[in-house]
Write a structure and sequence with these properties.
Number of helices of chain B: 24
Distance between the termini of chain A: 33 Å
Structural class of chain A: alpha+beta
Shape of chain B: globular
Radius of gyration of chain B: 25 Å
Shape of chain A: elongated
Oligomer: heterodimer
Distance between the termini of chain B: 25 Å
Strand order of the largest sheet of chain B: 3-2-4-5-7-6
Number of strands of chain B: 18
Helix content of chain A: 25-40%
Strand content of chain A: 35-45%
Largest interface: A-B, 17 and 16 residues
Strand content of chain B: 5-15%
């Protein structure tokens, strides 16, 4: 289970550039970062997984805090969160395999969202592990292409305001 | 007669009130700079920054110092900032002008020096298309500035300038950059000017360390047996020298400083261990390595200090005082982190501090000091560089000089053999180790502190990296003293080749120009000193230093009353030539009837008396500033 930093930044290419530039420049080892839209069109939320054995999450956030484009940083640490990943998987599918693929999709609560002459597109949503597993099972049919959103996450429970709003209040 | 200091009275009081006016963006930028209290700008104009220079023409109270290379401009801005604590400002054009700033901005970033760079940019409609003199300045300087702004709309321009000043000085200081496309500079708009003092901080400050934490730190000090204060450049930026002294004296703790911290604690104080680290004193390094408590103030456990981190001060606990949270635990784990401005934190900490029992510790330190002093052997044949530097110190100490040092062996010898007693008197490139820093930095420092004696100690290699700054110094009649410690080698590199590369001296020999002949081209100089004994060195160095010291009229207008062999830096020639002799600060002979008559329009209230003639007048003048009538 990674240690999560939820970083709210201005919604612009420039601010993403600044964040990634800093992480690269400081050689801070972080995991795969996902970029998500939020309730506020002006901001994006970056979810940055940090392995505390490799780098102190405090150090990552202390560096990111210096960027003017960073509106808020939440250190979720080990707090209980809901994590959802999503993938679209295009598989080679002659008609005789349709039933089998549909059945497999059913087990993963995935859906078939496109039926082509030789392919099907399967949409799967869930924990990272579930999505991984679904893609692995589809491999035997011949996976043509996979696209994944990366994990989106939220703290469970609590009717707290969004971090950027809280930050604005504090200022 | 003008006031003795060139800065404080040169500009009329700034308008601080809120105001709304219609103008071109370039003028709005100048207005914002003016409201920030900018007194001097170092720069070179070019195509993209022409509108800015056009606006500058209407701001005669802001001095513009034309440099010969943009790297000099940014180092001058650094020298100015380091000497005064105020942000230094430089102007360049787009493309090559801006890219020439890169070294200096990196230097400022590493040494936390507040610098504001204003760069011209190609028009917005050309941007991204590889236009003539286009460079991605925002991308290039992203990692070497605290923040940079590309101004796309006129209204954002003054806002960006104010934000750049705020951020450059706020928290841990550093460089900022504002990139201004030419079409934006030329666009007319309605601008609102705010009082820069009233503007909000760029970032909300961190909570100050609470009392419980301060008490905990004080307890740790009281319980220590072998404490040491390890003081870096942050203490100087913060102005914490009095508080460091108070803490050292109250708790009887020895103090060592980094290169950047030289001057934060007086080295003539019995508690001083001078500099530590790779080139530091033996006793400072012994003391920190055997200590059981390090109180780090504005220092970052740099590799030049610690060597191998895992072997550094293995028994010491650490109280780390720093304004930058990202420095805590970066290189060395802190047991207690006091995040905040060093001066404020030390002030808050002092009341809780109780002296530990350091009797045995002091006996040990005195023993180390006696056994391993800084030393060298000055023989009869050649002048040791250490001796030359020590002599410069002895001869100038009473004048409280500001000393700029370059990078290399001379830097380390000067760090060792000067006795640094005052903050902001040692200006050198620490973090980046930028050869070529010190001469332009001396120019900047002299502009910031016109009444101080500014000395530049340079190496022959580093001098040649930016020696075009000499021309600017001569043009402005800056009474800077340059000492070149000339050993015909890139000495520090040679030293390492000698020690670690089997004496294979690869590419370190310097075929130098004749520095004395170079100096003849517009400078006052002394014959090179070489091959003689110590007594001769003294005899030659002394006149060089005493010839033009503060208190004599200096900073005379260029091209005015100076004949061949005359003193370009302001000492009256025999016969006086109409210059007021004797002490009394820098006079303005240009305004007190010096010969040469009216040579273009002197700008009003220019206490320097420098002939800041209108550009057209200057262009029309015979020969220009460097040649004499």
């Amino acid at each position: 289970m990674p240690h999560w930093l939820a970083v709210t930044v201005e919604n612009s290419v420039e601010s993403l550039n600044r964040v990634f530039h800093l992480l690269r420049r400081r050689h801070l080892p972080v995991g795969d970062i996902s970029v998500c839209r939020t309730e506020d069109p002006e901001t994006l939320r970056l979810l940055i997984p940090v392995d505390p054995d490799r780098v102190d999450p405090q150090r990552v956030s202390a560096n990111l805090e210096k960027l003017l484009c960073v509106r808020a940083i939440e250190d979720w640490g080990e707090r209980p969160i809901v994590v959802r990943d999503m993938a679209l998987v295009k598989v080679r599918a002659p008609t005789e395999t349709w039933v089998e693929i549909a059945q497999l999709a059913e087990f993963y609560r995935a859906r078939i969202v496109d039926v082509g002459p030789e392919t099907l597109i399967v949409e799967v949503t869930g924990s990272t592990e579930k999505v991984d597993s679904c893609i692995a099972r589809l491999q035997r049919f011949g996976v043509v292409e996979v696209i994944r959103a990366g994990p989106m996450a939220m703290i469970r429970g609590h009717a707290e305001a969004a971090p950027a709003a809280r930050m604005a209040e504090a200022a | 007669m003008a006031a003795p200091a060139m800065i404080q009275t040169s500009a009329p009081p700034r308008t601080a009130r809120r105001e709304r006016r219609r103008m071109k963006t370039a003028w709005a930028v100048m207005e914002a700079l003016y409201r920030e209290g900018v007194e001097v700008i170092f720069g070179v104009p070019g195509g993209a920054s022409l509108p800015l220079y056009d606006a500058l023409y209407d701001y005669p109270h802001i001095r513009h110092v034309l440099v010969r290379h943009e790297q000099c401009a940014v180092h001058m801005a650094e020298g100015y900032a380091r000497a005064t604590g105020k942000p230094g400002v430089c102007f360049t054009t787009s493309g090559p002008g801006a890219t020439n700033l890169v070294t200096g901005l990196t230097d400022a970033m590493m040494d936390s020096t507040p610098v504001v760079a204003i760069t011209g940019q190609v028009p917005t409609f050309f941007m991204g298309g590889d236009a003539f003199q286009e460079a991605d300045v925002i991308g290039l300087t992203m990692s070497i500035t605290k923040h940079n702004w590309l101004v796309r709309k006129p209204a954002q321009a003054p806002e960006a300038v104010h934000a750049a000043f705020r951020l450059a000085t706020e928290g841990r200081p550093g460089p900022t950059l504002v990139d201004l496309p030419r079409d934006v500079l030329l666009a007319e708009a309605e601008f609102t000017f705010e009082d820069p003092e009233a503007s909000r901080p760029a970032r909300s400050p961190r909570p100050f360390p609470d009392e419980a934490l301060l008490r905990q730190a004080a307890d740790m000090i009281a319980q220590s047996q072998r404490p040491i204060l390890y003081v870096g450049g942050g203490a100087i930026h913060s102005g914490a020298a009095p508080e460091i002294r108070a803490l050292a004296e109250k708790a009887r703790i020895p103090v060592t400083t980094t290169l950047m911290g030289l001057g934060a604690f007086p080295e003539d104080h019995p508690y001083s261990l001078k500099m530590l680290g790779m080139h530091g004193t033996v006793y400072a390094n012994f003391a920190i390595n055997f200590s059981d408590l390090i109180i780090a103030v504005g220092a970052r456990f740099d590799d030049r200090v610690t060597g191998k981190l895992s072997a550094f001060a293995p028994h010491a606990k650490v109280i780390h005082i720093d304004i930058d949270p990202a420095e805590i635990h970066k290189n060395r784990k802190a047991d207690i982190a006091l995040i905040g401005d060093a001066k404020q934190v030390l002030r808050a900490l002092l009341p809780f501090v109780r002296p530990p029992d350091t009797e045995a510790w002091w006996r040990q330190i005195q023993d180390w000091k006696a056994r391993y002093p800084l030393r060298y052997r000055q023989g009869d044949d050649v002048i040791k560089p250490q001796f030359a530097i020590q002599m410069i110190y002895e001869l100038t100490r009473d004048y409280r000089p500001i000393v700029t040092l370059d990078v290399g062996q001379h830097q380390m010898w000067a760090a060792q053999f000067f006795t640094w007693t005052e903050p902001r008197t040692c200006i050198t490139s620490g973090g980046l180790g930028t050869m070529g820093f010190s001469l332009p930095a001396a120019v900047g420092a002299q502009f910031g502190c016109p009444d101080r004696l500014v000395i530049n100690i340079n190496g022959d290699g580093s001098f040649q990296m930016t020696f075009q700054a000499l021309i600017t110094a001569v043009e402005w009649r800056l009474p800077i003293k340059v000492f070149i410690i000339n050993n015909q080698y890139l000495g520090m590199v040679r030293q390492w080749q000698e020690l670690f590369y089997n004496r294979r001296y690869s590419a370190v020999y310097l075929a130098n120009p004749d520095f004395a002949r170079l100096a003849e081209a517009g400078l006052h100089h002394q014959q090179p000193v070489s091959g003689h004994g110590a007594a001769v060195a003294g005899a030659v160095l002394q006149p060089a230093l005493l010839r033009r010291l503060p208190g004599q009229p200096g900073l005379r207008p260029a091209g005015r009353g100076r004949g061949r062999g005359g003193d370009p830096c302001g000492a009256p020639r025999s016969g006086g030539a109409g210059h007021p002799p004797g002490p009394g600060g820098h006079r303005s002979p240009g305004r007190s009837g010096s010969p040469g008559g009216s040579r273009g329009e002197l700008l009003p209230d220019d206490p320097l008396g420098h002939d800041r003639v209108r550009y057209d007048d200057r262009a029309r003048r015979e020969g220009g500033a460097m040649s004499d009538p």
